[in-house]
Amino acid sequence: MSTRTPLAYSPKILELFKNPKNLGRMNDASVVSQAGSPACGDVITIYLKIDGDKIIDSSFESYGCAANIAAASILTEMIKGKTLKEAWDLTWEDVANELGGLPPIKYHCSILAVGGLKRAIRKYFEEIKREKPEWLPKDLSKEERQALEEEELIERMYKKYGVVT
Amino acid sequence: MSTRTPLAYSPKILELFKNPKNLGRMNDASVVSQAGSPACGDVITIYLKIDGDKIIDSSFESYGCAANIAAASILTEMIKGKTLKEAWDLTWEDVANELGGLPPIKYHCSILAVGGLKRAIRKYFEEIKREKPEWLPKDLSKEERQALEEEELIERMYKKYGVVT
Amino acid sequence: MVKISELLEQHGKPSREVYLDNENSGWVPPEVVEAMLPYFNQKGYGHPSITNLPGWEAYEVVESTLELVKKTLNIRSGELVLTHSGTEANNLAILGTALAANKGKRRKIVVSAIEHMSVLFPARTLEERGFKFVTVPVDKEGFVNPEILSMLVDNETLLVSIQMVNHEIGTIQDLKTLVKVVKDVDSEIIFHTDAVDAYGRLKIDVEDLGVDMLTLSSHKIHGPKGVGVLYVREGLKISPILYGALSTQKMWPGVENVPAIAGFGKAVELAFRDFEGNVEKMKNLRDMLIDGILETVPDTLLNGPRGEKRAPDNVNVSFLHVEGESITIELSLRGIYVSSGSACTSRVLEPSHVILAIGRKHEEAHGSILFKISRYNSREDIEYVLSQIPLAIERLREISPLAKQSKRSIDEKEVYA
Amino acid sequence: MVKISELLEQHGKPSREVYLDNENSGWVPPEVVEAMLPYFNQKGYGHPSITNLPGWEAYEVVESTLELVKKTLNIRSGELVLTHSGTEANNLAILGTALAANKGKRRKIVVSAIEHMSVLFPARTLEERGFKFVTVPVDKEGFVNPEILSMLVDNETLLVSIQMVNHEIGTIQDLKTLVKVVKDVDSEIIFHTDAVDAYGRLKIDVEDLGVDMLTLSSHKIHGPKGVGVLYVREGLKISPILYGALSTQKMWPGVENVPAIAGFGKAVELAFRDFEGNVEKMKNLRDMLIDGILETVPDTLLNGPRGEKRAPDNVNVSFLHVEGESITIELSLRGIYVSSGSACTSRVLEPSHVILAIGRKHEEAHGSILFKISRYNSREDIEYVLSQIPLAIERLREISPLAKQSKRSIDEKEVYA
Ligand SMILES: Cc1ncc(COP(=O)(O)O)c(C=O)c1O
Ligand SMILES: Cc1ncc(COP(=O)(O)O)c(C=O)c1O
């Protein structure tokens, strides 16, 4: 196994970068959520259209690198037709695998995408349906937590490493 | 001017290395002397044939690098026909110049050659003629001193830098 | 494991290619490669400090290349230390000075905030060895203010390092004034300049500038990789930072990379053969590219100054609402090769410290793209680039939620969960 | 200033040439040069960590070369750090280990007395930083005695560095035993081996040996200069010793020398294509040369062992009563290119520390000549060398006062003034 840390992507990422599936704002979405921040250089917006307990459509927007775009795109592909519970059970590793692997420094792209999805599902139950199913944990999932941490951490790192005096 | 310290010789040195003049033991020499030591990797033997106050013939042997051989050879060329006083007044810089220049780490070759010559002249007066002319200083000339120092210094350096425990 | 060959296949070879990433890796013209070839196996393949024919031939290459370099910089004395990269030469300048001064009372190292990381990082590391590390801020175009610099140095300052030309935004410092200001405070302060991005684009006169050390890198002037140079003023004492068998120099151990040095020599020759013409050409292409982008793409910011104080080869633009790594890939698919100051391409979680230092926001830095022009580019190249950039940026803005958020009014509460 | 061109003219180009100085500078075969060429300007001329086509092509070169190297060494995990020379890789191993361990209680560095200077000198420098520097003596053939080694290491030992094959006298250590002996004393002791002169001549199995770090150099296996490699075992923490912009690796800053890495990859491929055949060929030439010299030239000493424990490419002979630098020049004039362990060629005022360490006297070391055979040499080459050596040595012994002093009885008092 290589120990290099390059940005050599799997061909799948480049393919999705060239022709992203499920791209764009969904005007009749049941719920919309976002993860990341412009200052981090990574923002993923996830749109879900929900019918009963099923995700019947999904789309994304992405401000970020090719891995970010590809992760968001493939995630929306993966969840279409799934129940909300099935979608919730997806992990960032599932998405990374579906992409044909990610360079370690790009794991956070997959985390953001899945974090965004889980935020959307949580928001759907908490703010729109206003009733939570049993399987939805009260505590944040690892991807939600890591997305939040990254959003905050990066702000702190900027301060720590910022060269501007 | 280059600050490199390579062993790029003047063409003159290589020429004299290929075809050294005045090479070899002189069986009827008036005086013989040597400078350097096998442990240093540099030994020059100077043979002088003296008639009155003139050097009428001179030859050398050299154990050492090309610069060493060339310095000894050209020195013997330079002194032939000179008076002992004239020969004494030669400096190592004169020899280095005559060679077309020496890399700094090879100055000691020229010093050894001139040191050997001066030892021979001193020996001639002190041990053979047993009377010293006015112009012959009691103190060692800089080349004799440096040859001696080098002989001793190198022995000390071996001890200091020797890696063998 | 990622199969890179499949990635390359997915990318495809664009029918038209324009290389504008000479900042990160120089394109080496055939003439330069030609100049290297004999030294692999025909002559001079020996060790330049060994006394045999291939060694002496090798030494001649080292010597003649360095003599040529000295001439182009008006260096009359002092040493040119050969390393294998500009990074190594900068490390030698900074760490070697600190090592040599280890026991002295001068403990302050002053560098500009926009230095290359190969100056910034070794200098910062010296904090661990008890040195004080001070960065000089720059203004919105990247200039160091001589008065501020003068206030930051004092008679406990060991070293000042300020580059001649910034590698990302092309700012050309008024180096002579900066040197003077420092030496006026204390003439013993050592002044190093990283001239990697200045060499071959500006006239440099080392004697006139009064710097003590200066760094060059071969692959930044279309020479091969494998050669860096540190000029060290006559009499200045620095310490080696690596140790081993010496060849023709004391300050960097190991054998010189002779074929690469031969190529570097040829690259120097080519850069200076029609120096004015080369510079003029680059300036024209530069301005054509800057004007073209700013005119055709909305929401763009030029980073760095305009005009005579900008390096002739430098174009750096922030495209708002899109992220730089995406842009490099999007442009690569169109055969245009550039780099970005985005965090994604920097291998640390921060965007370019240079773009931040001139007061840009993070999101502006993430969308910054560096186009490094060379004399091997043509007007047609730039025309092609200008035809593609608007399309590329538009496509990425289609994907980005930020571009649209900036245009339409959106229920923020709805989007930011 | 010396005009080197005139020196070269005075030397002349010999009609027949045999290059036997591969120790100091490798001869690079056309196939290897060929493999480098595309990466200067056709493809992969980008930066291997930039996300564009030339960058990804460059990355593919880095990746595929290192995968190949790993296969040849049976490396299954861990990192291969790319530097620009074996010297740099050795420095990283020694200094990087010391830096990483800076605050620990392990303060002892143990190296063999015959290590290359790029191991010996950085290790010795660490004395200034409070480390204890210990050299392990070797026997008359250059072997480290495992029992002595075992006595010299203890639980305060940080690092042991012992080369696999000595570069001057060809001694092949029983490395597996040496590693075992050290790890038996304390399994936490880090074991580095400089395999620069072993790679391509011996089968090396990193997993089986149990070493923690291992050094390679491209130009020692007929690759181009500009590539060194340090293998670092999975989980072992060392610190970088230079700082700057990172490309694909953390341990050495700056851009990888991609064309050189491509050439190195080809050189590895060639060395292992018919490994057994190559080694057999070298061994035959080696023994032919050793036997020939010892038979035809009186007053010669072979340095290093004979047989299976001698590197297949190494011949090292001391010619008594003559000085090595003279021999290299004399042989060069005859088109035979070698090097010497003489003080004159070492740039310090001492002859080879390796030859001294095996108990030779200074005057024996001064006359030592290293012939480094390669698979590109032929039987005819060696026949030619054997035809010239007796003539060359005889001529120099004619010049030397020592040769005759050893033969005739001479009034010592007369000669030594
Ligand atoms: C200003 C500046 N300094 C130093 C360097 C380092 O040079 P090299 O790539 O030869 O290590 C670079 C290259 O990126 C640079 O732009
Ligand atoms: C045993 C050994 N180690 C290290 C080195 C240094 O390698 P390089 O020439 O690539 O710096 C050499 C080369 O002389 C060597 O023979």
Walkthrough of the structure:
The complex is a heterotetramer, with two copies of chain A (165 residues) and two copies of chain C (417 residues). Chain A is α+β, with helices and mostly antiparallel strands and 165 residues long. Chain A has a single domain (11-160), classed as Alpha-Beta Complex (Sufe protein. Chain: A). Helices cover 47% and strands 16% of the residues of chain A. Chain A contains six helices and three strands. Chain A has helices spanning 11-18, 66-79, 84-88, 92-98, 107-129, 142-161, and strands spanning 31-37, 42-51, 54-63. In chain A, strands 1-2-3 form a three-stranded antiparallel β-sheet, covered by helices on one side. In chain A, a hairpin with a 2-residue loop joins strand 2 and strand 3. In chain A, helix 1 (11-18) crosses helix 2, helix 2 (66-79) crosses helix 5 and helix 4 (92-98) packs across helix 5. Residues 161-165 of chain A have low confidence and may be disordered. Chain C is an alpha/beta fold. Chain C has two domains: 4-22 and 274-416, Aspartate Aminotransferase, domain 1 (Alpha-Beta Complex); 30-272, Aspartate Aminotransferase, domain 2, CATH 3.40.640. Helices cover 42% and strands 13% of the residues of chain C. Chain C has helices at 4-11, 30-36, 38-41, 53-73, 86-100, 117-125, 146-152, 175-185, 206-209, 258-273, 275-296, 324-333, 353-357, 362-366, 379-399, 401-407, 412-415, and strands spanning 18-19, 79-83, 108-112, 132-136, 157-161, 190-194, 213-217, 228-232, 300-302, 314-319, 336-337, 339-340, 368-372. In chain C, the strands form three sheets. In chain C, strands 2-8-7-6-5-3-4 form a seven-stranded mixed β-sheet, with helices on both faces. In chain C, strands 9-10-13-12 form a four-stranded antiparallel β-sheet. The longest helix of chain C has 22 residues, at 275-296. Chains in contact: A-C, A-D, B-C, B-D, C-D. Chains C and D meet through helix 1, helix 2, helix 4, helix 5 and helix 6 of C and helix 1, helix 2, helix 4, helix 5 and helix 6 of D. The structure holds pyridoxal-5'-phosphate (PLP) (2 copies). One pyridoxal-5'-phosphate (PLP) binds next to helix 5 of chain D.
